[in-house]
Design brief:
Radius of gyration: 23 Å
CATH superfamily of the largest domain: Spore Coat Polysaccharide Biosynthesis Protein SpsA, Chain A
CATH topology of the largest domain: Spore Coat Polysaccharide Biosynthesis Protein SpsA, Chain A
Structural class: alpha/beta
Helix content: 40-55%
CATH architecture of the largest domain: Alpha-Beta Complex
CATH class of the largest domain: Alpha Beta
Order of helices and strands: EHEHEHEEHEEEEHEHHEEHHHHHH
């Protein structure tokens, strides 16, 4: 008989934490069968040995995947989800752990009774590297029921809290996108298929600063949003517009901070690494910047860059030889005039 739920756990060099994660898994009390696929990505410490020990002790629950070659975070995560046989999938990375033995029962009961929901999550307790604890943590407060449009404003679903429906189309698209940051992308892909429920009470602990999916740099976050904009462009016009606005806001604030730090080379490198469509989106946004970004204009360099790119966008078709020539010329002028 197939399990109703599959727990997907990825691990790499987490010998200090993996046992606690596995204890939280095997201590779950449910009235249904569940499995835990635990994939070690060729760790160089004793993580794989610890996983193998738990698989021997709990053969009906722990299904180990012990790789002899490192394949990377996203590939490892995608492979584990492909292997899931349950109707539902729960995530718990190797450095996080669950503290409520009824967590899976509560979340599965809700999803079973409410087919219009695609995702169920809860707050988590955060354990920092220095040992401090923050109870009931979420990145931002949201209502009990939300949807993909709220999620497009920013992630609020802690990874070890989530349970979602096993959708192979979502898992395939997640693997194909190859995003540098995994959890937010996965949640948005799942949220296409139903509403999002927040249950009360912290039922898991998230270790800040040591996770496999750590906080991304602004450049990486911009890259993630660019991938999402491309993915949703022909699927959902309103969602695409929200994501484009968010992508532009992230880029604008990042560039503002760089200019304020007088790091013009880094700003130009960031612009150089953008694709043409992202550049056009950003510069249109700058020309029509929201009032909340008015302080950007206090930077002479920023204001001048806006004017230069306004000129180029009005008169030059994106991607043309003329467009690229003018861009190089504008950068040359910028270095001397600002």
């Amino acid at each position: 008989m197939a399990p109703l739920l599959t727990i997907c756990t990825i691990a790499y060099n987490q010998e200090k934490f993996i046992a606690q994660a596995l204890e939280g898994i095997v201590s779950q009390r449910t009235d249904f069968e569940f499995e835990a696929i635990v994939a070690d990505d060729c760790s160089t410490d004793s993580t794989a040995k610890i996983i193998a020990g738990y698989a021997e002790k709990y053969p009906g629950i722990i299904k180990p995947v012990l790789r002899n070659k490192n394949i990377g975070m996203i590939a490892n995560s995608s492979d584990v989800m492909y292997r899931a046989t349950g109707k539902y999938i729960a995530l718990c990375e190797g450095d996080d752990y669950w503290i409520d033995p009824l967590k899976l029962q509560k979340q599965t009961d809700f999803l079973e009774a409410n087919p219009e929901y695609a995702i169920c999550f809860h707050p988590v307790t955060v354990l920092t590297e220095d040992g401090n604890v923050a109870d009931g943590f979420m990145t931002r407060e949201v209502p009990e029921t939300t949807d993909i449009y709220e999620l497009a404003k920013g992630n609020y679903i802690p990874t070890p809290s989530v349970v979602f429906r096993n959708n192979q189309e979502v898992i395939r698209d997640f693997a194909l996108l190859k995003s540098p940051v995994g959890d937010y992308v996965l949640h948005l892909l799942n949220a296409q298929h139903g509403k999002i429920k927040k249950l009360p009470g912290a039922m898991a602990v998230y270790r800040s600063g040591v996770g496999v999916w750590s906080s991304s740099r602004p450049e990486e976050y911009f890259a993630v949003l660019r991938l999402l904009c491309e993915y949703f462009e022909d699927k959902n016009e309103y969602l695409h517009r929200l994501l484009v606005q968010k992508k532009n806001r992230i880029a604008a604030n990042y560039l503002k901070n760089i200019f304020q730090a007088d790091n013009e080379k880094r700003a130009l490198d960031f612009l150089d690494n953008m694709d043409d469509n992202s550049k056009k989106d950003l510069f249109k946004y700058l020309v029509n910047a929201e009032s909340s970004l008015a302080d950007i204009h206090s930077s002479r360099g920023w204001s001048f860059l806006q004017k230069l790119y306004r000129f180029r966008d009005v008169f030059m078709p994106a991607g043309s030889r003329r467009w690229r020539f003018v861009e190089r010329s504008l950068k040359f002028l910028y270095r001397f005039l600002c």
